[in-house]
Design a protein that fits this description.
The chain is mainly alpha-helical and about 130 residues long. It has five helices and three strands. It has a three-stranded antiparallel β-sheet.
């Protein structure tokens, strides 16, 4: 019995075939400054990653596709970090888009709900003593 022989590869005339592209791939990505538009003053709203954004109204006809997508997502309160992740856009771009929506009063920014760091010790002791008396 003879072992299998390896076949020698010969160089081909052209480059190797490229793998098939999925739908949406191969497009030239738009520059981020095209998405945000030209801002005269360059000021941004002070938005934290955990600031909650809620839509006040539907998207107007003049809204860009990114702004319409933001307004569609903000039906329920979402944080800026979640919006950035869902839209697959950097945080800085999302803050510029949200600043435009905030100045147009189409969205509302809410500070996150912060719980008290430590509960009141006297309240916990009163509850504990009340439970022990039962």
């Amino acid at each position: 019995m003879t072992p299998p022989q390896r076949q020698r590869r010969h160089p081909t005339d052209g480059p190797p075939p490229e793998p098939a592209k999925k739908q949406g791939e191969g497009k030239i990505p738009e520059r981020l400054y095209v998405l945000t538009g030209a801002t005269e003053d360059g000021d941004r709203a002070e938005l934290d990653l955990v600031t909650l954004i809620v839509a006040r109204s539907d998207a107007p006809q003049s809204a860009t596709p990114e702004q319409a997508a933001l307004l569609g997502l903000c039906i329920a309160p979402l944080s800026v970090a979640e919006l950035s992740a869902y839209l697959n856009l950097p945080y800085s771009v999302v803050t510029v888009l949200l600043t435009e929506l905030l100045t147009a009063e189409l969205v509302q920014a809410r500070a996150p709900i912060v719980r008290q760091a430590l509960p009141n010790r006297s309240l916990l002791e009163a509850v504990m003593h009340g439970l022990q008396k039962l």
